[in-house]
Amino acid sequence: MNFDNEYMSLYKDNLGALWIGTFNKGVKYYNPNQYYFNHYELKTGDKSVLSVVGNLIEEK
pTM to 2 decimals? Predict the structure, then answer.
């Protein structure tokens, strides 16, 4: 995973997984218990739309 300076927020959920909000790169997810990475992107087709994930919360 290459983070450079794109990350905006970090959240550790109640299962120990990390959710990383980014600047224009969607959300990155890492589950250390399963050694699993995933990446969720906003796909609009419009280059003028920014995808900034600044806050992450967990619904209870």
Answer: 0.69
Tell me which residues of the chain have a pLDDT lower than 70. Answer: 1-5, 44-53, 57
List the beta bridge partners of residue 19: 11, 29
Domain count, the chain: 1
Instruction: Measure the CA–CA gap between 22 and 1, rounded to whole angstroms.
Output: 13
Range of the domain at 52: 1-60
What does the alpha-carbon distance between residue 27 and residue 58 come to, in Å, rounded to a whole number?
14
